[in-house]
Amino acid sequence: MTAARAGDVVRVHYTGTFDDGRTFDSSAGREPLEFTLGEGEVVSGFDAAVTGMSVGEKKTVKLNPEQAYGHRREDQVMTVARNMLPAELKPKPGMQLQANAPNGGQIVLIVVEANDDSVTLDGNHPLAGKRLTFEIELIGIAEAA
To answer: Which of 10, 22, 36, 137 has its CA 20 to 30 A from that of 48?
Structure first.
């Protein structure tokens, strides 16, 4: 059987859970996730777990934060003046906002706190700092040329 390797386009079904068993994401009932191994399209631990799998193989992996979304960084939490945001925006805790990153990309910021004068925003990924468990099944491989 062919094993998945860097450069292959793979299709997987997965379920991601926290240590307490709660599911945070799953491909159940959807199309399988498709990505290119080794291209950084998924977190490094997920990519490493799929590498070497054969079609039909299933596995469960536990990822520490450094293999997933990293550790929470307090320097990613900032408070800005309310007038720095569009006047029509009514920020509320939990709301997700998009901003332009210095590299030209987009970043997602989560509103932590908001009042008439300021808004506290968190640029950490919502799963940063968490241990994650993934149940993975490799559905298909399109081998690299």
So the answer is: 22
- 34, amino acid identity: E
Confidence of residue 39 (pLDDT cuts 50, 70, 90): very high
135, two tokens:
């149940």
Please state, in angstroms and rounded to a whole number, the distance separating the CA atoms of residues 10 and 111: 35
Each residue of 85-140: pLDDT tens digit? 999 999 999 999 998 888 888 889 999 999 999 999 999 999 999 999 999 999 99
In the chain, what are the domain boundaries? 9-70+127-142, 74-122
**CATH number of the 9-70+127-142 domain:** 3.10.50.40
Q: Take residue 80 and report the two structure tokens written for it.
A: 């800005």
Report the amino acid identity of residue 107.
I
